[in-house]
Design a protein that fits this description.
The complex is a heterodimer. By secondary structure, chain A is mostly helical. In chain A, 85% of the residues lie in helices and 0% in strands. In chain A, helix 1 crosses helix 5, helix 2 runs parallel beside helix 5 (88-117) and helix 6 (125-152) runs antiparallel to helix 7. The two termini of chain A are 20 Å apart. Classes of the chains: A mainly alpha, B mainly alpha.
Chain lengths: 219, 223
């Protein structure tokens, strides 16, 4: 496995995205509409707990929608072609890195619109954004692997959601905790352990995806 | 008889712990009072479930290496037996919580961990039933099983130590010191753990044998 292969594959994903454009625009419209629906139903939110929970629910569903597409574009012929060219480890790393970047963009845009419509209660923005980036990485790892499992099982979005919800919950709970600390503007020392746990989950998910994906890929 | 002695041991141990667990004296502690006896049933059932889930994950790993149908059957049936025990564990825990905490269910990291474990294995069963092809089902569900097991361990082992929990044995090291067990309690508790783990394995063995026979009779398949 070469790093050149990974960068080639990431470039391929970006090119596909750039040529089709429907995927990213579709997701953006999806999250923006969700935020708007929430805005119309809540008007404004004063309770930090509600604000935080609603934001993460929107983010989770957006993330699942974004990542569920990662293996749908692969037709059988193209998958076979890629299989002859690249090692499965390179494939999964490239997909995870690409999904991380995509999720970061989608999540930050969600945050922008969420703050714009519903208003921001965040006191520590740098911690909040750091938390979003770290959890985007972990979410992308978990969701890319489950998307691979669901696509190999030949089932659609429902299976993907069932498989990924319980597995994402540990990291989601940690992310919610850090996010709540950032909203309340607590000192960094209150969140540092949780951030470490988030990094730890990232490492575990990455290693597992790297080791398990070859077995998934082999037909 | 040479092969089955451990089943008799399992039965006798559990029978002994049920009788001794209700009759032997226990330390008088505030709030816990007589409910401390639940430690003889609730905790060993969890140990048994964790053992079965580990067996399930281990055989999933074995399947990825040897591709034998038997490994897949063991891994799936261990998870089934484990789910039965997890229901028992939830019920005993819930009844205990009603009399000590005053509520059937509360938001606590340990309890949430259990709920997530339950959801993970339900998802595993649904994933299995969604694929008709046997080899594909075995391979893909093995991948999910290993992944989900590690995430479950992360949740059950690490997160409760990070935040405050009402659950006995929390706050630092989840040892049994907090139960304030005395030697009489240990004499019941350790046999109970061994007994319940053996009962769980027995349950698994019966399920595996049924499945192997079913495949042999229905599909004429030797595994």
């Amino acid at each position: 496995m070469k790093t050149k292969h990974i960068s080639e594959l990431i470039k391929k994903e970006f090119l596909l995205e750039f040529r089709q454009k429907t995927a990213l625009n579709g997701i953006l419209l999806y999250v923006i509409s969700t935020v708007f629906v929430c805005y119309l139903s809540f008007k404004n939110i004063v309770n930090p707990v509600t604000w935080n929970a609603l934001f993460w629910v929107i983010l989770l569903f957006g993330a699942i929608n974004t990542s569920s597409k990662s293996f749908l574009q692969e037709t059988k012929g193209r998958a076979l072609y890629n299989f002859t060219l690249y090692k499965p480890q390179a494939m999964i790393l490239a997909k995870i890195i690409y999904n991380t970047l995509l999720l970061c963009v989608v999540n930050l845009i969600t945050l922008l619109f969420y703050c714009w419509f519903i208003g921001s209660l965040v006191q520590d923005f740098s911690l909040f954004i750091l938390n979003i980036v770290l959890s985007s990485m972990a979410l992308s790892g978990v969701l890319t692997l489950t998307a691979g499992i669901a696509s190999k099982a030949g089932s659609g979005f429902t299976l993907m959601a069932i498989l990924s919800f319980p597995v994402t919950l540990p990291l989601l709970l940690v992310a919610l905790k850090v996010s709540k600390n950032a909203v309340d503007g607590l000192a960094m020392s209150a969140s540092s352990t949780y951030l470490l746990v988030l990094v730890f989950i990232n490492v575990i998910v990455g290693v597992l995806a790297f080791l398990l994906f070859p077995y998934l890929w082999r037909e | 008889m040479k092969k089955n002695w451990w089943k008799i041991v399992a039965g006798l141990l559990v029978l002994y712990t049920i009788v001794a667990g209700f009759l032997l004296p226990v330390p008088r502690l505030d709030i816990l009072n007589e409910t401390i006896r639940n430690v003889y049933y609730h905790v060993p059932i969890w140990f048994s479930m964790l053992t079965l889930m580990s067996v399930s994950a281990f055989y999933s790993l074995m399947y990825l290496f040897n591709q034998k149908a038997k490994s897949d059957v063991v891994s799936s049936e261990a998870a089934h037996a484990g789910i039965v025990l997890s229901v028992l564990g939830i019920v005993t825990g819930s009844v205990w919580a009603r009399y000590t905490w005053g509520t059937w269910w509360t938001s606590d990291t340990k309890l949430n961990g259990v709920a997530i474990t339950f959801l993970i294995y339900m998802a595993y069963f649904i994933l299995r039933s969604s694929m008709p092809d046997e080899q594909k089902r075995a391979r893909i569900s093995a991948v999910y099983n290993i992944f989900a097991f590690v995430m479950m361990i992360v949740f059950v082992m690490i997160l409760p130590r990070m935040s405050a929990s009402l659950h006995p044995g929390n706050g630092g090291n989840p040892a049994f010191g907090k139960y304030d067990m005395d030697n009489t309690m240990r004499m019941v508790f350790y046999p109970a753990c061994i007994g319940w783990i053996l009962i769980g394995l027995w349950l698994m063995q019966i399920r595996v044998r049924t499945e192997v026979l079913k495949r042999k009779i229905l599909f004429d398949e030797q595994i």
